[in-house]
Amino acid sequence: MEHLGDRMSSAVEAVLSANPQDAAAIGKLVLSSSDIAALGRFVVTKDPKDIGKFKTPSLRNVAIGGPYMHDGSVDTLAEAVDLETYQRTDASGRPIILTPVERMDLLDFLTTLTGREATLPLRDAALSQPATAKTRATTSQALATSAR
Questions:
Q1: d(CA 77, CA 26)
Q2: What are residue 112's phi and psi, to 5 degrees?
Q3: Which of 34, 54, 63, 85 could share a disulfide with 111, CB 3.0–4.6 Å?
Q4: What is the domain partition of the chain in residue ranges?
């Protein structure tokens, strides 16, 4: 691990010195530093080959699976979609630009991947309830307002 820069070496040392039995502390550690978050699966496996690798989660129940991104830095699915489309480009290198309708369609599609019974461990029991027509309408209205 000598080839790592000073910042990355410090991040690796912080991970290696953390108590592997204290998942909450490790989670806080990852959220506290973008350098530590960038270590990827190494935080879990402690295998240098896993530095920078990430486990891609399923889209099942994605509407209730926040926070989002590899480091938990985005609270809502709408924010995650906005961030990803803002930072990504298509195959030709042009930015991806979604119209408000396309954005809403994408969010509606992702919401359909949430089942009647949530299977994810959630911090807030209220979030474990599947979206209803009323909550979807409220979300759609809020998203439409924010897109203006």
A1: 24
A2: -65, -15
A3: 63
A4: 6-50, 62-147
Residue 11 phi, psi dihedral angles, 5° rounding? -65, -45
State residue 30's pLDDT score.
80
Contact 65, 74 (CB under 8 A): no
Give dist(CA 114, CA 50) in Å, integer. 30
Give first-to-last CA distance, the chain, whole Å.
Answer: 48
Whole-number Å distance between alpha carbons of 60 and 145: 27
Question: Nearest 5°: phi and psi at 53?
Answer: -95, 145
| Two structure tokens written together for 136 | 């979807």
- The two structure tokens encoding residue 138: 């409220």
pTM of the full predicted structure?
A: 0.51
pLDDT, tens digit, 9 for 90 and up, residues 25-43: 887 888 788 888 888 888 8
